[in-house]
Amino acid sequence: MTRSLPLFHVDAFTAQAFAGNPAGVCLLERHAEAEWMQLVAREMNLSETAFLVPRGADFDLRWFSPTVEVALCGHATLASAHILWQEGRCPADRPIHFHTASGVLGAERRGDWIELDFPSEPAQAIAAPPGLLEALGVTAQFTGQNRFDYLVEVESEQVVRGLRPDFTALRTLLTRGAIVTAKARAGADYDFVSRFFAGGAGIDEDPATGSSHCCLGPYWQSKLGKAELVGFQASARTGVIRVRVEGVRCKLGGEAVTVTKGEFVVRGA
Q1: Residues 6 or more apart from 128 whose CB is under 8 A from it?
Q2: Is the pLDDT of residue 82 over 70?
Q3: Is residue 242 scored above 80 in pLDDT?
Q4: Per-residue pLDDT tens digits for 256-267
Q5: Cα–Cα distance, 253 to 242 (Å, whole number)
Q6: Can you give the residue ranges of every domain in the chain?
Q7: Quick check: 268 pLDDT over 90?
Q8: Which of 49, 124, 149, 183 would be 24's cystine partner, CB 3.0–4.6 Å?
Q9: This prediction's pTM
């Protein structure tokens, strides 16, 4: 016996295909075993695959990288909201609420953009742990840490763009990853730049990361004195994330594009 489940590939935090951060979105009829979802995520081989199960008018949402389940993921949440509206699973004028390992997250349409309601994840200043700056190949202006990642500010956008980290060394750090950031160059149409290296989740470099901006938002708000910011993630694919800090919450804005639409064939009962 076989059945089919809708499965999508979406590029998030971008207005064009083949940029931003790719995510898988799988629409489930009921809860599935974590082991099966991990195998699907490994088969998709995208930075994250989202699994959605209806919960009344809301949805339960879990995210898996090809190697582990993750506790918070922005781009796959953005992709999930995009698909639910695109496929008519939710009214276009109604916010969507997701029940996740990081609490209830929200999504609302803002014209062509989607705005996510996420927890703020500020970093606390720490001394750089042994091996971190050497693995990144940088001198730090600031080093901090939140519950997920290290945060490292460097002297310029040029340094961020030119990073050539030692990925093997970064995978030995006891965190999900390392965010490297700098103030935008003069005249840029964004406020700060960043790159994100997520060796702890099995991803050398994540192209456009919502959850890292839950840390970057409060950090650059305090430095620049702005509550509304635009971040540019300077990966090879690039990504643009709007950030608005509201107390203990971060509102993350981005666009999304469906790249492929198909079905996942499930064999068995």
Answers
A1: 140, 143, 152
A2: yes
A3: yes
A4: 999 999 998 888
A5: 5
A6: 2-114+254-267, 124-247
A7: no
A8: 49
A9: 0.95
**Is residue 150 within 8 Å of 143, Cβ to Cβ?**
yes
Structurally, what CATH architecture does the domain formed by 124-247 represent?
Roll (3.10)
Choice among 35, 48, 155, 263 that is catalytic = 48
pLDDT value of residue 269: 53
Q: Is 48 a catalytic residue?
A: yes
- Segment 150-177, tens digit of pLDDT: 999 999 999 999 999 999 999 998 899 9
